[in-house]
Amino acid sequence: MGTTRGLRLDRFFVGEGEGGERVDRFLARKLGISRSLAHRLLRAGTVQVNGNTVEPSRRLNPGEEVQVHWAGPGLKPTPFPLPIIYEDEAIVVVNKPRGLPVHPVGPSEEATVVTALLARGPLAGGSPERPGVVHRLDAATTGVLVLSRTERAYRALVQQFKERKILKEYLAVVEGEVEVDEGVIKGRIGRDPHAPWRMDVQDSGKEAQTEFTVLSRKGGRSLLLVRPVTGRTHQIRLHLKAIGHPIVGDELYGKGSGPLLLHALRLGLFHPIGGDWREFQAPPPPEFHAWFAEEGNKFLRQTERQSPPSTPKRLGG
């Protein structure tokens, strides 16, 4: 395993017992990906055998070298200083900076989380345009984000999101001092028919539910710990607006300008390989620090968690 031209390069040598195997099967086994993805990588010219591109059906000979140049199908890696919280052969967890999109939208040379990660290693699962993307954060939102490096990990994570086994906790600073200490917001979400770039709370939308706890109130604003039970587009922003407390800095659904004070603080999941419960936390950006300085240990006690919610069993257990 090495690098070339700033991209990741995986190298494999065909062993004596592997002679005669199709190169697409060989790749799928070595990389832990599906044969369909291996086939696409070969068709895209990402894979070379002894320095030459080959057909997926090509049979390998002992001693041959197979190289995988990880540039992503149709995506140009864009090296970018991305804070890495955790990474292994199956997943990579980052603290997404403000203003960085998760994946490219249309032809663009702009850096994204996906293109930045492709510059340091493989991503797999999902569509070729957004490999490894199992969930998203708005470009203006900061915080913890997980992506998959194998199709097996992608399928496992997507299933956990679908079955609502993922723990998601956000910090949000909202306008107004919220009167209740905690609450549940329910409101179906769909696309605004008059402004398709916006979402809206509407009867014909998809079910959505958000839970929140007030951590602090001061100066006409409140700091909330928010747990979205479902994962609709712009859900937290819409639901908080619906109860009269839009997020500070939300130019789309609120009145303010400046940074959006919404941060994905914590993500908990069952690791797609071992099945054990893992939690990852992203340090909030400086705009939140004044709240922590005043709340101190009280804030930490309210946000700490030592075990999964409802203490779920090991995945598959």
Largest sheet descriptor: 9 strands, mixed
Task: Predict the CATH topology of the largest domain.
Answer: Pseudouridine synthase
Radius of gyration based on Cα positions:
22 Å
Shape: elongated
- Average pLDDT taken over every residue: 85
The overall strand count is 15
- What is the number of independent domains? 2
CATH architecture label name of the largest domain: 2-Layer Sandwich
Percent of sequence in beta strands = 25-35%
* Order of secondary-structure elements: EEHHEEEEHEHEEEEEEHEEHH
Describe this structure in words.
- With 317 residues, the chain is α+β, with helices and mostly antiparallel strands.
- It folds into two domains: 2-70, RNA-binding S4 domain (Structural Genomics Hypothetical 15.5 Kd Protein In mrcA-pckA Intergenic Region, Chain A); 84-303, Pseudouridine synthase, CATH 3.30.2350.
- Helix content is 18%, strand content 28%.
- It is built from seven helices and 15 strands.
- The chain has helices spanning 23-31, 35-43, 113-118, 151-162, 235-242, 289-295, 297-303, and strands spanning 2-4, 7-13, 47-49, 65-70, 84-87, 91-96, 142-148, 167-175, 182-186, 189-191, 199-201, 209-218, 221-228, 262-270, 277-281.
- A hairpin with a 3-residue loop joins strand 5 and strand 6 (91-96).
- Helix 1 crosses helix 2 (35-43).
- The longest helix is centred in the middle third of the chain and has 12 residues, at 151-162.
- The radius of gyration is 22 Å and the shape is elongated.
- Residues 1-7 and 310-317 have low confidence and may be disordered.
